[in-house]
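I am sending you the entry underneath: sequence plus fold tokens. Let me know what the token row says about the fold:
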Amino acid sequence: MKTKLIFILTFISVVHCHAQFSEAYYNNGRENARRQNYTGAIAEYTKAIELKPDYADAYCARGISNDQLSKYGEAIADYSKSIELMPKNSAAYYNRGHTKLTIKDYVGAIEDFTSVLKIMPDFYDAYLDRGIAKKGLKDYQGAKDDYSKAIAMNPKYQNAYRKRGLVNSYLQNYKEAILDFTKAIELDPNDASAYFNRASAKADFKDYQGAITDYSIVLKFKFDNVEVYINRGTAKYNIHDRKGAAEDFDKAISIDPNNADTYYRIALVKNILHDFKGAFSDYTKAIQIDPNNADFYINRGIALQNLNDHKAAITDYTKGIDIHPGFAPVYYNRGTAKDQLKDYPGAITDYTKAIEIDPGYSDAYFYRGKAKDRIKDFAGAISDYNKVIEIMPRRAEAFLQRGISKINSGDKVSGCADLDRAGDLGFVKAYDIREALCK
């Protein structure tokens, strides 16, 4: 009996000693983590867990250090084990949600942040982070609702106003977005990103002068930001300040003269603003820096078409196709260029390729039908217009063209009915054409 008692006492002493050592290793891990020695921290937490396999806090802490080393799989496994041992461990759910956000597992992140909120309903950070995950899924309204809940709990939550402003912009609620960014700026007057986003919302709302003012403020914080100069230049162009726009675009290029993307982005803006010569020049500079980028050739082709240089446009489209085949709009664009040069068989070939890639490409069917009309393949044209009408039942032009093709093929009754239908759908000139062809 005496021997057995000694054994029991010894066992209890060992367990107590293990608990002490486990706690010591855990504290060592925390100290290593504080010093950003995450590898050392993981080693200490692991020792603590080996001595105490149900040490939920050690698993959670090790997960944090794994996160810091971008070992996301190991981090999630640690947080999950901590949750298994302590089902209401809100910290483990919250940290695991953040890790899932990092790896873009937005569905999993939403589940974890929701679990946090069941345990801690007033934890407004969890609403913010769940909103971020919903935004990742493009559930902008859901994200907005979560940001609003965070703001309701903490009316001075600057980050939530800024993020709600962004989703309001995505939802095209530009007035609300501007109010949100303004509130974010009131709470932090040095938040350059809030000024930038408010400027963008103002530009979308067509308040170009307001956008210019905000972009100018951003430049006080970030004086060498290429994107700000490009955006401010675009806003200036929209208020017909061509000189100011040119100065901003030139400034962007002077900051980053060897970056093809800078020329490309400025060229895109010029194309949108119908400065096709300027766009052509900038696309050319982009190509000189990076001659293997299909987008540069394709977009220069668009500028060339707008300048009525269809032959050169075809050359650029062909180069873009050589680099990046399988993009339906490029074949379509090349088809329209060939159409302009009266190469109708070549145009038909390109429209057909666009349709093979994208069987629902209604414009490709429509213009292939017109090309077939020009080579007097009326049956083929009618077939293409049928397809357009199948895809877009209210496209008046398709009824008009099909009606003309039917009349040209000898089916006058049905053709005239199509012309009537085109007129009924709003293409008023169809009535005049019917008057001329259906006597």
About this structure: DSSP finds 25 helices and no strands in the chain.
